[in-house]
Amino acid sequence: MSRPVSRVLTLLELLQSGGVRTVAELADRLGVGERTVRRYVDHLVDLDIPVESVRGRYGGYRLAPGHRMPPLMLTDDEALAVLLGLVAGRRTGITAAAGTAGETAAAKVRRVLPERLRHRLDAVLDSLTFTTAPAGTAAPEAAVLLPVADAVRHHRPLAIRYTGGRGGGGERTVYPYGLVAHAGRWYVTGRDLSAGAERTFRLDRIGTARVLPGTFAPPPGPGPAERVLTTLATAPHRHEVTVRVRGTAEEVRARLPGSVAVVTPADEGDGEGGAWCRVEIRAERLDWVPGVLASLDRPFVVERPDELRGLVAELAGRLMDAARHAPPPRD
User: What ranges in the chain are assigned the alpha helix state H?
Assistant: First the structure.
């Protein structure tokens, strides 16, 4: 590659890093005069790359949004970061791209990479395995995600057409507080003006989303992520479990996911200066709850339901039996 062409590409890479670059700065980085920098900029403009001139004391050049994405100049580390991000995003369900958009984006990045770098990155991707199964994803459509995000950022009301879990649906007007990605799904939490209460909506169940005129002030209190986790933990289920656990709320929360249990400080102590907290769990089945309580490794008292006490006693008996059994003799 000739030196002028190499410097033009270096100029493009510098502009892609963002912000306004002064002519003097660019000349110093490229090792050329300021007149040559202006000529290189003209070359980029001739290639339909949207470089714009900024006047004033702190003026210079910057890369402006254009009608198409300009050629990307990625270092080895940047290319690896992009491809691994796409792979990990699909694996964990965080990628907000329906259909094959993630795969086609990765293919486009790979196609424009130098052959040497492409082979090295393919070696990483081909040899990479995960310790967890792929997340069951429900990616939102871009036509839904983008207006919802815009409404959240600018505190604007949002009109959505929503289909609930039982099939019922209709138009809702929402004050959206925040977007949350959790366990392969995307949620928006906010105040449902139609119901006059706070609600959490799954984005994959939103058919259409439209930003409305006006603004609102988000209320103080828990952040969007905490609101979503609390909603998931308190969703209606067959059993409502309440247990008092010895320890501070912070200590117990560190062992129980926020989407499983709501943990709050209890008013009473144990007379010895020890703190207690109250744990509330909603569950369709109780058979897994005794194991979770045992894993806390802390004293606890079951307040409800009575059936849970029997299941805890059964688990304790099975553990005692297992502890008494000697290992079989070796051959």
Answer: 3-16, 23-30, 34-46, 76-92, 101-111, 115-127, 142-154, 224-233, 249-253, 289-295, 306-324
**Rounded-to-integer distance, Cα 5 and Cα 93, Å:** 41
Q: What radius of gyration do the chain's Cα atoms show? A: 28
Ramachandran category for residue 183: left, alpha or beta (phi over 0 → left; psi -120 to 50 → alpha): left
The residues, ordered by sequence, that sit 6+ positions from 247 with a Cβ below 8 Å of its Cβ are 275, 276, 277, 296, 298
Segment 146-170 shows an average pLDDT of 87
41-68 average pLDDT score = 82
pLDDT tens-place string over residues 214-262:
999 988 888 888 888 888 777 777 888 999 999 998 899 888 888 788 8
d(CA 124, CA 110): 13
Q: Supply 233's token pair.
A: 């933990």
Residue pointed to by tokens 């792929």: 134
Q: What is the Cα–Cα distance from 123 to 121, expressed in whole angstroms?
A: 5
